[in-house]
Design a protein that fits this description.
The protein is of the alpha/beta class. It has helices at residues 24-31, 35-41, 43-57, 84-98, 116-128, 141-153, 183-197, 213-229, 244-257, 269-281, 297-304, 317-331, 355-365; strands at residues 7-11, 15-20, 70-76, 103-109, 133-136, 157-161, 177-180, 203-208, 233-239, 263-266, 289-290, 310-314, 341-343, 346-350. It is globular, with a radius of gyration of 20 Å.
Length: 370
C-alpha cells in the first residue's frame, strides 16, 4: 500500500512551516543495505557477525599483550534524557579496561540533529590530532560527505554508531564498523504491538525527531508497516528535534485537533516523555497510548509508573562492548575478523512484565554501565 502524502509540521520554538512527508521506505531501500539484505548479499559477513557476537557476549575477555595507547575520539548527540549514549561510552571504556587496552579518549556530546557545525569542527580537531578511531554517527547528508572523505584518507578508522545499515554509496570503502541496534527491527516490533492492542481503524500520530536517517527508519518503517497491514489513519505528524518540550507542544496540538486520537508513536525517549507529560496534564494517561524507544532507565521507570505503554529495550551495553572488541581485533592485526555491521538485540517491555523480569533485563542490558 502506498503511503499517502500528508502535511507535516516542523517545530522550532513555535509550530510553523508546513512540509510534506514522503514515502520513507522508497528512499531507504535505495540508499542503504538493510541488515538481512546485506547478510543475504554478503553471506560471509553473517558468519563474521555471528563469530564476533560470541566475543561480545563473553563475560571474561582475555587481556591483550602490552602495546601503546590508542587514540579515540567520540562525538555523540548525547545531550538527551536517554542514557543510551552515556552507557555506550561507559560499557566501551569498561571493556577496554577489562582487556588491558590503554587508551586516550577525547569526547564531545552535542544536541541531537541540530549542532552539525559543532560536530564537524570537533571532527576536524580530532583528525588534526591524528586520532586512531573516530566514533561518530550518520544522521545527515553533511555527515555522509565528511565520513566519505575520512575513509578515503585512510588514516583514521571510522566507527559509526546507532546505524546498522551500510550505505550503498560508500561501495567497497565502508567504515570500519557500523554498530548499534537496528532501527527497522525496533520499529517493526512496536508496529506489531500497536496492531495487537489497537483497533484496525484507530487514529494515530507520529512524532519524528529531526529530518535524517533515524527519523527516516524509525518513523518511516513504522508508518509503512501500519499502512500495509491495517486501516489505521495517520492524522498528524511532526518533526520535534528529539526534544521533550517540542514533543509536548506537538502533543497539545494533536489533542486539540484530534480528540479521538488512539495512540502517538514516539521516535525517541525524549519525545516519548514529552508526550507522556502532556497526557498526564490532560488526564489521558493510559487512554491515549504512547511507546518508548530504546528502554533506558527513564523509560523503564515510566513504564512501571504507567506513563508509557511499552517500549523496545536495547541490550544497551552490547554496542559499547562491540566497539571495544573491534579495536582489540584491529590492534592485533585481525581487522579481517571485524564484521562490517553489528546489530544488538531488543526485547519488548510492557506494563504487564514483573519487576523481577525487568530487573533481569536491566542486569543484562546494563552489565558494564551500572
Amino acid at each position: 500500500m502506498k503511503v499517502p502524502i500528508l502535511k507535516t509540521l516542523w517545530l522550532s520554538s513555535l509550530i510553523a512551516l508546513m512540509v510534506p512527508i514522503i514515502a520513507w521506505s522508497d528512499i531507504q531501500l535505495k540508499e542503504y543495505w538493510m541488515v538481512e539484505e546485506y547478510f543475504s548479499e554478503f553471506p560471509q559477513q553473517k558468519k563474521l557477525s555471528d563469530a564476533f557476537n560470541r566475543k561480545v557476549q563473553a563475560d571474561t575477555p582475555s587481556p591483550l599483550a602490552t602495546h601503546k595507547p590508542v587514540k579515540i575520539s567520540i562525538i555523540y548527540p548525547g545531550q538527551q534524557v536517554s542514557d543510551y549514549w552515556r552507557r555506550s561510552v561507559a560499557s566501551f571504556t569498561a571493556r577496554l579496561k577489562q582487556m588491558d587496552i590503554p587508551y586516550e579518549l577525547d569526547s564531545l556530546h552535542t544536541k541531537p540533529g541540530v549542532e552539525i557545525a559543532l560536530q564537524i569542527k570537533q571532527i576536524r580537531k580530532s583528525l588534526g590530532a591524528q586520532t586512531d578511531y573516530l566514533v561518530f554517527t550518520l544522521d545527515a547528508l553533511r555527515h555522509k560527505n565528511l565520513i566519505e572523505r575520512i575513509i578515503a584518507q585512510g588514516r583514521t578508522k571510522v566507527i559509526l554508531q546507532n546505524i546498522t545499515t551500510p550505505l550503498k554509496a560508500f561501495g567497497q570503502q565502508q567504515p570500519f564498523l557500523y554498530v548499534g541496534f537496528d532501527h527497522s527491527i525496533g520499529a517493526n516490533m512496536l508496529a506489531q504491538r500497536y496492531m495487537a492492542v489497537a483497533t484496525k481503524t484507530s487514529e494515530y500520530a507520529i512524532l519524528f525527531g529531526t529530518k535524517g536517517y533515524v527519523s527516516k527508519v524509525r518513523g518511516g518503517v513504522f508508518q509503512d508497516t501500519i499502512a500495509s497491514n491495517t486501516d489505521m489513519k495517520l492524522v498528524a505528524s511532526y518533526y520535534v528535534d528529539f526534544n521533550r518540550d517540542k514533543a509536548a507542544t506537538a502533543t497539545r496540538e494533536i489533542l486539540k485537533n484530534h480528540p479521538n486520537i488512539n495512540f502517538i508513536y514516539a521516535c525517541s525517549t525524549d519525545i516519548a516523555l514529552g508526550v507522556s507529560d502532556v497526557l498526564a496534564e490532560a488526564g489521558l494517561t493510559g487512554k491515549v497510548l504512547v511507546n518508548g524507544w530504546g528502554g533506558g532507565s527513564s523509560e523503564l521507570a515510566a513504564i512501571q509508573d504507567g506513563r508509557l505503554s511499552f517500549t523496545v529495550m536495547r541490550m544497551n551495553d552490547d554496542n559499547g562492548v562491540a566497539m571495544a572488541h573491534a579495536i582489540a581485533l584491529d590492534i592485533q592485526g585481525k581487522a579481517g575478523d571485524v564484521p562490517t555491521l553489528y546489530s544488538g538485540d531488543f526485547h519488548l517491555v510492557d506494563q504487564n512484565m514483573s519487576a523481577k523480569d525487568i530487573e533481569a533485563l536491566k542486569r543484562r542490558a546494563f552489565r558494564l554501565s551500572q
